[in-house]
Amino acid sequence: MSDQAIPPQSASAVAEEPPPSGPRRMVLNMGPQHPSTHGVLRLLLELDGETIVKCQPDIGYLHTGIEKEFEVKTYQQAVTLTDRVDYLAPLSNNLCYCLAVEKLLGLEIPPQAQWMRVMLTELTRIQSHLVWLGTHAIDIGAMSVFLYCFREREDILRIFEMFSGQRMMTSYFRIGGLALEPPRGWQQRVRKFIDIFPSRVDEYEDLLTNNRIWTGRTKGIGYISVEDMLDLGVTGPMLRGAGLKIDARKDEPYSSYEKFDFEVPTRTENDVFARYQVRVEEMRQSARIVNQALEGMPDGPWKADSPHVVLPDREKMKTQMEALIYHFKIVTEGFRVPAGEVYQVIESPRGELGYYVVSDGTTHPYRVHMRTPSFGNLQCTSTLVQGSLIADVIASIGSMDFVLGDTDR
Amino acid sequence: MLPENLRQHAVAAAVEAFDADAVTGGAYDRSELMLEIAASKIVSICGFLKYDQKFARLSTVTAVDRYPAEPRFEVVYHLHAVEQKQRVRLKCRARGTDPVIESVTSVWRGANWYEREVFDLFGIQFVQHPDLRRILMPDDWEGHPLRKDYPITGTRI
What we know:
The complex is a heterodimer.
Chain A: H1 11-15, E1 25-30, E2 42-48, E3 51-58, H2 66-70, H3 79-83, H4 90-105, H5 111-140, H6 143-164, E4 173-174, E5 177-178, H7 186-208, H8 212-218, H9 226-232, H10 237-240, H11 248-251, H12 272-296, H13 314-319, H14 321-333, E6 340-348, E7 351-359, E8 367-371, H15 373-378, H16 381-385, H17 390-398, H18 404-408
Antiparallel strand pairs in A: 1-2, 2-3, 4-5, 6-7, 7-8
Chain B: H1 10-18, E1 23-29, E2 32-37, H2 42-51, E3 57-65, E4 73-81, E5 86-94, E6 100-102, H3 111-122, E7 125-127
Parallel strand pairs in B: 2-5, 6-7
Antiparallel strand pairs in B: 1-2, 3-4, 4-5
């Protein structure tokens, strides 16, 4: 293949490098429309035979300017933007943003809302890992796992729909609590799912863990040293697959995670298989947390007692003057947030998710920056695949579990 | 000058002991520590925090546009000490015309993409950056969208 294979817009990106020489050298353009990049990621691979000499990731195809958009929305309106960042973990993003603004406001969130948030973000973690497992298995060549995973994912999405009316863009957490009262009969639905789920994880493991093709494609593949990962800003299951026990749920507990009993799974092999094991174990641990939340769910209000911020009940609005005034004020102009800045970090399914919210005392955020785990993780791509065979690139980048919406924002 | 009430924070005190001129201010607000650093000292302070104070991770680099105030830009760094479970925010100022600041890629390689993002969206130049080009916007894009004077609606003709 000659240089002509590279699309013209990439000319500036490759021009800095001397063109590869020798008969075995070539530049291969992978993506942006490649089924294994799960979105629109473009990799420029420089090959020596079948070995990767150099890899240049090219991102930005899904950039939608969400951070700019935050600045013209009121604080409460902006919740809907956070879903669209990481579309496989909408509730994790809702949660992180709400926690940041609540920290600015100094709001106290009632226990039921906190526990409900924990339960739903753990279900989000399970469904995100399910999508990862299914698609990663397809990439490597195991079609049936995908069907099994999406069977359970559908159950979780139905639970989300029950709560919020939406399968994916939930926006169920709001500043000050939840968007709606938990629906009638949610306990039975979640119970039914969580009782059966551990046996379903066993099914995935039956299909994969001792599968010779699976282990052959994943064991010993995708090694990257811990120092490199820390230096390059990698977080989440990749670090835990290398033996580092970093998890914001334990290290910097939020939303009453300290009240739950769960393990942070780690492996030391530091390869694609270890990351697979970590994520499978995380699904089991998340199921444990959901179980605990289900059993110990506290009673009481599901939104904070703060009439300046939280919309009043419909009934009160019809009978009380103040409630009507607050409703009008919140809906028309929003609520003011004291000036200041916070950086809130949570553990999303992909790693460290951080929202940096700057307020200037008005009803709109002055600046919101999202530290997304996919962006940090993708940065290690070139180090990760360098020196490996081209056939292993798919397994390696698949093990990072990035979402391009999360990367490009 | 480090504000008096920050001396009790070990990290703030250590930074001041390392280089008193570098610290131009700071705050402890909502249990988060923020230090304002003179822009010319950012690399040495980051090196000190990484190797001496165990802030092994650079969580993120971003910027805030304070238009029309001058100096206009704040470049914001969030550092994370994994074992101590500690975080600190560093802030540097950059002027409005041809904003320039030194890159911290020599301390953390991971700063690379974050600084490219700030360059792309705010137009702040990072000196000594190995590969400073746009990352999210197209290569031929004009303007820097996250600046406050960049229009939010309408298309350019």
